Amino acid sequence: DQYRTEVEQWKPTSMQEVEAFRLRFLVAKGLIKNLFEEFKTVSVEEKRMLGKVLNEFKQFTESRFATMKEKFSAAQPTVKRAVEDLTLPGPGFNAGAHHPLSIVRKEIVEIFKKLGFIVAEGPEIEDDWHNFTALNFPEEHPARDMQDTFFIRKGAGNDIALRTHTSSVQVRMMEQGKPPFRAIMPGRVYRNEAISARAHCFFHQVEGLYIDEGVSFADLKQTLYHFVQELYGAGTQVRFRPSYFPFTEPSAEMDISCTICKGAGCNMCKYTGWVEILGCGMVDPNVLENSGIDAKKYTGFAFGMGIERITNLKYEIKDLRLFSENDIRFLQQFETEV
Ligand code: PHE
User: Fold this and answer.
1) Whose CA is nearest to atom 4 of ligand 1?
2) Any signal peptide, and if so, which residues (predicted)?
3) For the complex shown, is ipTM > 0.95?
4) Measuring from each residue's beta carbon to the nearest atom of ligand 1, which residues come in under 6 Å?
5) Ligand 1 center to 277 CA (angstroms)
6) Is 276 buried (19+), middle (13-18) or exposed (0-12) by CB count in 10 A?
Protein backbone atom coordinates (compact mmCIF):
# COMPACT_ATOMS: atom_id res chain seq x y z
CA ASP A 1 0.00 0.00 0.00
CA GLN A 2 2.82 2.36 0.88
CA TYR A 3 4.43 1.77 -2.52
CA ARG A 4 1.14 2.13 -4.30
CA THR A 5 0.69 5.60 -2.79
CA GLU A 6 4.18 6.46 -3.97
CA VAL A 7 3.34 5.40 -7.54
CA GLU A 8 0.09 7.35 -7.47
CA GLN A 9 1.74 10.48 -6.21
CA TRP A 10 4.54 10.39 -8.81
CA LYS A 11 3.53 13.40 -10.92
CA PRO A 12 6.44 13.93 -13.23
CA THR A 13 7.09 17.39 -14.73
CA SER A 14 9.76 16.28 -17.14
CA MET A 15 11.07 13.35 -19.09
CA GLN A 16 13.88 13.03 -16.50
CA GLU A 17 11.37 12.44 -13.75
CA VAL A 18 9.63 9.81 -15.87
CA GLU A 19 13.00 8.12 -16.25
CA ALA A 20 13.58 8.32 -12.48
CA PHE A 21 10.25 6.56 -12.02
CA ARG A 22 11.35 3.77 -14.31
CA LEU A 23 14.63 3.37 -12.44
CA ARG A 24 12.88 3.25 -9.08
CA PHE A 25 10.22 0.70 -9.94
CA LEU A 26 10.74 -1.12 -13.20
CA VAL A 27 14.37 -1.98 -13.93
CA ALA A 28 16.13 -5.27 -13.19
CA LYS A 29 17.26 -4.05 -9.77
CA GLY A 30 14.13 -1.95 -9.19
CA LEU A 31 11.56 -2.10 -6.41
CA ILE A 32 9.16 -4.49 -8.10
CA LYS A 33 11.89 -7.02 -8.90
CA ASN A 34 12.97 -6.83 -5.25
CA LEU A 35 9.43 -7.40 -4.01
CA PHE A 36 9.18 -10.49 -6.20
CA GLU A 37 12.49 -11.74 -4.77
CA GLU A 38 11.14 -11.26 -1.26
CA PHE A 39 7.92 -12.99 -2.30
CA LYS A 40 9.82 -16.20 -2.98
CA THR A 41 10.78 -16.42 0.70
CA VAL A 42 7.30 -16.17 2.28
CA SER A 43 4.98 -19.02 3.33
CA VAL A 44 2.49 -20.73 1.01
CA GLU A 45 -0.59 -19.03 2.56
CA GLU A 46 1.03 -15.61 2.34
CA LYS A 47 1.99 -16.33 -1.28
CA ARG A 48 -1.61 -16.87 -2.25
CA MET A 49 -2.67 -13.55 -0.79
CA LEU A 50 0.39 -11.49 -1.76
CA GLY A 51 0.74 -12.90 -5.27
CA LYS A 52 -2.45 -11.23 -6.42
CA VAL A 53 -1.58 -7.91 -4.78
CA LEU A 54 1.92 -7.91 -6.24
CA ASN A 55 0.77 -8.68 -9.77
CA GLU A 56 -1.82 -5.95 -9.60
CA PHE A 57 0.78 -3.53 -8.34
CA LYS A 58 3.14 -4.47 -11.15
CA GLN A 59 0.46 -3.94 -13.78
CA PHE A 60 -0.63 -0.67 -12.21
CA THR A 61 2.95 0.65 -12.15
CA GLU A 62 3.59 -0.37 -15.75
CA SER A 63 0.46 1.30 -17.01
CA ARG A 64 1.27 4.48 -15.05
CA PHE A 65 4.68 4.45 -16.68
CA ALA A 66 3.19 4.08 -20.16
CA THR A 67 0.89 7.07 -19.57
CA MET A 68 3.71 9.25 -18.27
CA LYS A 69 5.94 8.37 -21.18
CA GLU A 70 3.30 9.23 -23.72
CA LYS A 71 2.67 12.56 -22.09
CA PHE A 72 6.31 13.58 -22.32
CA SER A 73 7.25 12.18 -25.68
CA ALA A 74 7.88 14.18 -28.87
CA ALA A 75 6.80 17.83 -28.87
CA GLN A 76 5.42 17.80 -25.38
CA PRO A 77 8.31 19.38 -23.46
CA THR A 78 8.06 22.86 -25.04
CA VAL A 79 4.32 23.01 -24.58
CA LYS A 80 4.72 21.95 -20.99
CA ARG A 81 7.39 24.57 -20.33
CA ALA A 82 5.30 27.33 -21.83
CA VAL A 83 2.39 26.40 -19.63
CA GLU A 84 4.60 26.43 -16.57
CA ASP A 85 5.86 29.98 -17.02
CA LEU A 86 4.22 32.18 -19.62
CA THR A 87 6.56 35.06 -18.82
CA LEU A 88 9.66 33.20 -20.05
CA PRO A 89 11.20 34.76 -23.17
CA GLY A 90 10.71 32.85 -26.40
CA PRO A 91 13.52 30.85 -27.97
CA GLY A 92 16.27 33.05 -29.38
CA PHE A 93 16.74 33.52 -33.10
CA ASN A 94 19.51 34.89 -35.26
CA ALA A 95 18.99 38.64 -35.56
CA GLY A 96 21.26 39.02 -38.59
CA ALA A 97 23.94 41.62 -39.22
CA HIS A 98 24.28 45.09 -40.61
CA HIS A 99 25.50 45.21 -44.19
CA PRO A 100 29.14 46.34 -44.38
CA LEU A 101 28.12 49.29 -46.57
CA SER A 102 25.62 50.39 -43.91
CA ILE A 103 28.26 50.06 -41.19
CA VAL A 104 30.71 52.23 -43.10
CA ARG A 105 28.08 54.76 -44.21
CA LYS A 106 27.09 55.20 -40.58
CA GLU A 107 30.72 55.71 -39.58
CA ILE A 108 31.20 58.36 -42.28
CA VAL A 109 28.00 60.15 -41.26
CA GLU A 110 29.03 60.15 -37.59
CA ILE A 111 32.41 61.73 -38.36
CA PHE A 112 30.91 64.55 -40.40
CA LYS A 113 28.06 65.07 -37.94
CA LYS A 114 30.61 65.99 -35.31
CA LEU A 115 31.88 68.70 -37.68
CA GLY A 116 28.37 70.11 -37.99
CA PHE A 117 27.34 68.49 -41.29
CA ILE A 118 23.71 67.45 -41.61
CA VAL A 119 22.48 64.55 -43.76
CA ALA A 120 20.52 65.41 -46.93
CA GLU A 121 18.80 63.07 -49.35
CA GLY A 122 17.30 63.29 -52.81
CA PRO A 123 15.60 61.17 -55.46
CA GLU A 124 17.38 58.35 -57.29
CA ILE A 125 15.38 59.12 -60.42
CA GLU A 126 16.67 62.49 -61.44
CA ASP A 127 16.22 64.99 -64.24
CA ASP A 128 18.95 66.25 -66.53
CA TRP A 129 19.02 69.65 -64.85
CA HIS A 130 19.92 68.39 -61.36
CA ASN A 131 22.22 65.57 -62.47
CA PHE A 132 24.09 67.42 -65.25
CA THR A 133 23.13 70.88 -66.48
CA ALA A 134 23.05 72.77 -63.18
CA LEU A 135 26.37 71.09 -62.35
CA ASN A 136 28.00 72.76 -65.33
CA PHE A 137 28.29 69.66 -67.55
CA PRO A 138 28.86 70.79 -71.14
CA GLU A 139 26.29 69.60 -73.66
CA GLU A 140 28.68 67.07 -75.21
CA HIS A 141 30.16 65.71 -71.95
CA PRO A 142 30.75 61.94 -72.19
CA ALA A 143 29.04 61.28 -68.82
CA ARG A 144 25.78 62.26 -70.49
CA ASP A 145 26.31 59.55 -73.03
CA MET A 146 24.18 56.43 -73.13
CA GLN A 147 27.25 54.44 -72.09
CA ASP A 148 27.37 55.89 -68.61
CA THR A 149 23.83 56.86 -67.82
CA PHE A 150 20.68 54.78 -67.53
CA PHE A 151 18.07 56.96 -69.19
CA ILE A 152 14.44 56.47 -68.33
CA ARG A 153 13.04 59.04 -70.74
CA LYS A 154 14.93 60.99 -73.35
CA GLY A 155 13.93 64.17 -75.07
CA ALA A 156 11.52 67.05 -74.42
CA GLY A 157 14.48 69.15 -73.28
CA ASN A 158 14.79 67.46 -69.90
CA ASP A 159 15.86 63.82 -69.89
CA ILE A 160 14.96 61.63 -66.93
CA ALA A 161 17.64 59.22 -65.73
CA LEU A 162 18.91 57.26 -62.77
CA ARG A 163 21.26 59.66 -61.00
CA THR A 164 24.93 59.01 -61.76
CA HIS A 165 26.14 60.76 -58.60
CA THR A 166 24.67 62.36 -55.50
CA SER A 167 25.90 65.80 -56.57
CA SER A 168 22.31 66.24 -57.75
CA VAL A 169 21.30 66.50 -54.09
CA GLN A 170 23.68 69.44 -53.66
CA VAL A 171 21.84 71.35 -56.37
CA ARG A 172 18.46 70.55 -54.83
CA MET A 173 19.66 71.68 -51.45
CA MET A 174 21.04 74.98 -52.71
CA GLU A 175 17.89 75.66 -54.73
CA GLN A 176 15.66 75.10 -51.75
CA GLY A 177 17.58 76.82 -48.98
CA LYS A 178 19.79 79.72 -48.07
CA PRO A 179 23.52 79.58 -47.27
CA PRO A 180 25.37 78.58 -45.18
CA PHE A 181 25.12 74.91 -46.18
CA ARG A 182 27.02 72.17 -44.47
CA ALA A 183 25.70 68.76 -45.45
CA ILE A 184 26.61 65.30 -46.61
CA MET A 185 24.51 63.28 -49.06
CA PRO A 186 24.73 59.52 -48.85
CA GLY A 187 22.90 57.55 -51.48
CA ARG A 188 22.79 54.98 -54.25
CA VAL A 189 23.91 55.95 -57.74
CA TYR A 190 23.79 54.16 -61.09
CA ARG A 191 26.16 53.86 -64.01
CA ASN A 192 25.86 51.81 -67.11
CA GLU A 193 28.95 49.66 -66.68
CA ALA A 194 29.62 45.97 -67.19
CA ILE A 195 29.57 44.15 -63.87
CA SER A 196 32.96 42.88 -62.70
CA ALA A 197 35.05 42.68 -59.54
CA ARG A 198 35.95 46.34 -60.00
CA ALA A 199 32.81 47.90 -61.47
CA HIS A 200 29.07 47.59 -60.96
CA CYS A 201 25.97 49.13 -62.44
CA PHE A 202 25.15 50.70 -59.09
CA PHE A 203 27.15 51.77 -56.07
CA HIS A 204 26.90 54.11 -53.12
CA GLN A 205 28.32 57.55 -52.60
CA VAL A 206 28.66 60.07 -49.87
CA GLU A 207 29.05 63.59 -51.17
CA GLY A 208 29.63 66.64 -49.05
CA LEU A 209 28.96 70.33 -49.50
CA TYR A 210 30.09 73.30 -47.46
CA ILE A 211 29.06 76.79 -48.59
CA ASP A 212 29.54 79.94 -46.58
CA GLU A 213 31.30 83.28 -46.77
CA GLY A 214 35.06 82.90 -47.03
CA VAL A 215 35.31 79.11 -47.30
CA SER A 216 38.68 78.24 -48.84
CA PHE A 217 40.63 75.29 -50.20
CA ALA A 218 42.45 75.15 -46.84
CA ASP A 219 39.10 74.36 -45.18
CA LEU A 220 38.55 71.57 -47.69
CA LYS A 221 41.96 70.06 -47.01
CA GLN A 222 41.67 70.22 -43.24
CA THR A 223 38.13 68.78 -43.24
CA LEU A 224 39.10 65.82 -45.41
CA TYR A 225 42.37 65.30 -43.54
CA HIS A 226 40.45 65.12 -40.27
CA PHE A 227 37.94 62.73 -41.82
CA VAL A 228 40.67 60.33 -42.88
CA GLN A 229 42.35 60.39 -39.45
CA GLU A 230 39.03 59.53 -37.83
CA LEU A 231 38.10 56.80 -40.29
CA TYR A 232 41.41 55.05 -40.89
CA GLY A 233 43.34 56.04 -37.80
CA ALA A 234 45.77 58.80 -36.80
CA GLY A 235 48.84 58.97 -38.97
CA THR A 236 47.11 58.03 -42.23
CA GLN A 237 48.70 60.28 -44.83
CA VAL A 238 46.83 62.19 -47.53
CA ARG A 239 47.88 63.76 -50.80
CA PHE A 240 45.93 65.88 -53.28
CA ARG A 241 46.41 65.57 -57.03
CA PRO A 242 45.02 68.18 -59.45
CA SER A 243 42.01 66.86 -61.35
CA TYR A 244 38.98 67.98 -63.30
CA PHE A 245 35.25 67.96 -62.58
CA PRO A 246 32.79 70.19 -64.41
CA PHE A 247 31.25 71.37 -61.12
CA THR A 248 34.40 72.30 -59.19
CA GLU A 249 37.32 74.63 -59.90
CA PRO A 250 40.03 73.99 -58.88
CA SER A 251 39.45 70.24 -58.53
CA ALA A 252 41.51 67.50 -56.94
CA GLU A 253 41.56 63.84 -56.20
CA MET A 254 42.62 62.76 -52.76
CA ASP A 255 44.79 59.71 -52.12
CA ILE A 256 45.53 58.17 -48.77
CA SER A 257 48.56 56.09 -47.76
CA CYS A 258 47.47 52.50 -48.40
CA THR A 259 45.64 51.28 -45.30
CA ILE A 260 46.48 47.68 -46.07
CA CYS A 261 50.25 47.63 -46.66
CA LYS A 262 50.91 50.99 -44.92
CA GLY A 263 52.85 52.10 -47.94
CA ALA A 264 54.98 48.98 -48.25
CA GLY A 265 53.35 47.99 -51.54
CA CYS A 266 50.47 45.62 -52.17
CA ASN A 267 47.85 44.66 -54.72
CA MET A 268 45.32 47.17 -53.40
CA CYS A 269 47.55 50.20 -54.05
CA LYS A 270 49.21 48.58 -57.07
CA TYR A 271 52.58 48.86 -55.29
CA THR A 272 52.42 52.66 -55.23
CA GLY A 273 51.65 53.01 -51.52
CA TRP A 274 48.71 55.33 -52.33
CA VAL A 275 45.02 54.75 -53.03
CA GLU A 276 42.56 57.27 -54.37
CA ILE A 277 39.46 57.62 -52.21
CA LEU A 278 37.62 60.73 -53.36
CA GLY A 279 37.18 63.65 -55.70
CA CYS A 280 36.83 67.20 -54.43
CA GLY A 281 37.17 70.88 -55.25
CA MET A 282 35.86 74.40 -54.81
CA VAL A 283 32.30 74.64 -56.11
CA ASP A 284 32.34 76.30 -59.52
CA PRO A 285 30.70 79.77 -59.43
CA ASN A 286 28.51 78.66 -62.35
CA VAL A 287 27.02 75.92 -60.16
CA LEU A 288 26.32 78.39 -57.36
CA GLU A 289 24.61 80.79 -59.75
CA ASN A 290 22.64 77.97 -61.40
CA SER A 291 21.33 77.06 -57.97
CA GLY A 292 20.43 80.62 -57.03
CA ILE A 293 23.39 81.37 -54.75
CA ASP A 294 25.25 84.66 -54.98
CA ALA A 295 28.72 83.53 -56.14
CA LYS A 296 30.25 86.91 -55.32
CA LYS A 297 29.32 86.56 -51.69
CA TYR A 298 29.67 82.83 -51.11
CA THR A 299 32.28 80.20 -51.80
CA GLY A 300 32.44 76.58 -50.82
CA PHE A 301 33.84 73.15 -51.36
CA ALA A 302 32.39 69.81 -52.34
CA PHE A 303 33.65 66.26 -52.27
CA GLY A 304 32.38 62.84 -53.25
CA MET A 305 33.45 59.32 -52.41
CA GLY A 306 32.28 55.79 -53.17
CA ILE A 307 31.32 53.91 -50.00
CA GLU A 308 32.32 50.62 -51.64
CA ARG A 309 35.89 51.79 -52.14
CA ILE A 310 36.11 53.07 -48.55
CA THR A 311 34.71 49.73 -47.29
CA ASN A 312 37.06 47.67 -49.45
CA LEU A 313 40.01 49.43 -47.89
CA LYS A 314 38.67 48.95 -44.37
CA TYR A 315 37.87 45.25 -44.71
CA GLU A 316 40.16 44.18 -47.56
CA ILE A 317 37.28 43.23 -49.81
CA LYS A 318 38.48 42.62 -53.34
CA ASP A 319 35.28 41.99 -55.28
CA LEU A 320 32.50 44.58 -55.57
CA ARG A 321 29.95 41.92 -56.46
CA LEU A 322 30.05 40.57 -52.89
CA PHE A 323 28.15 43.64 -51.71
CA SER A 324 25.02 42.83 -53.67
CA GLU A 325 25.00 39.04 -53.83
CA ASN A 326 23.72 38.60 -50.27
CA ASP A 327 25.88 35.54 -49.70
CA ILE A 328 25.26 34.67 -46.06
CA ARG A 329 28.90 33.58 -45.61
CA PHE A 330 30.00 37.10 -46.50
CA LEU A 331 27.36 38.93 -44.47
CA GLN A 332 27.85 36.83 -41.32
CA GLN A 333 31.39 38.11 -41.02
CA PHE A 334 30.01 41.51 -40.02
CA GLU A 335 27.76 40.24 -37.21
CA THR A 336 30.00 41.56 -34.49
CA GLU A 337 30.32 45.03 -36.00
CA VAL A 338 28.11 47.89 -34.83
N1 PHE B 1 30.43 63.69 -58.30
C2 PHE B 1 31.77 63.19 -58.42
C3 PHE B 1 31.70 61.74 -58.90
O4 PHE B 1 30.67 61.16 -58.87
C5 PHE B 1 32.52 63.26 -57.15
C6 PHE B 1 32.79 64.67 -56.73
C7 PHE B 1 31.91 65.32 -55.90
C8 PHE B 1 33.92 65.33 -57.16
C9 PHE B 1 32.13 66.61 -55.51
C10 PHE B 1 34.17 66.61 -56.74
C11 PHE B 1 33.30 67.25 -55.93
O12 PHE B 1 32.70 61.17 -59.29
Assistant:
1) 165
2) none
3) yes
4) 165, 167, 207, 245, 248, 279-281, 302-304
5) 11
6) middle
